[in-house]
Design a protein that fits this description.
By secondary structure, this protein is of the alpha+beta class. The chain has a single domain, classed as Aminopeptidase, CATH 3.40.630.30. Strands 1-2-3-4-5-6-8-7 form an eight-stranded mixed beta sheet, with helices on both faces. The chain is globular, with a radius of gyration of 15 Å. The two termini are about 20 Å apart.
Length: about 160
Amino acid sequence: MIKMSDNIVLINFIDLTLEEKKMILSWRNHPSIKQWMYNSDDILLENHLNFIETLKSCADKLYFLVKLDDDYIGVIDFTNIDKESKSSEFGLYANIELKGMGKVLLNSICEYGFHALNINKLIAEVFAKNEKAINLYKKFNFKDITRKTVNNKEIICMELKNEKY
């Protein structure tokens, strides 16, 4: 468990209880979340648990359940963590029962990525139709870098360099 500012706590996926793992899976499989994932299929509990198990021996990925005070507010992750280039891709999704958590989650990504991971560049890949996420990233000064197509969907690659953190 990692204490952040503003009453935020990050709980590493490898330290979660079974109930917390099941809660996260229910969020991830919710239509409002899975529509924005590269794999938009429902994920089986067994596959979810196996994935979490692989994180124990994975040096380039970190996944956290995020708590604000006593509420579980969402998930943040860092993937393709590259210590040499000091860059990492990231992802996030919020508890489906809460509104307005994107800013809190993204702030946690910036704070943890830039300070704890010592990353200089955060990279987002976002579906071009996901206006909510794009607008959030722009509020944090992420810049459009390039575009690509994945599974016949346009993806915008955005990045934020460590200038204000």
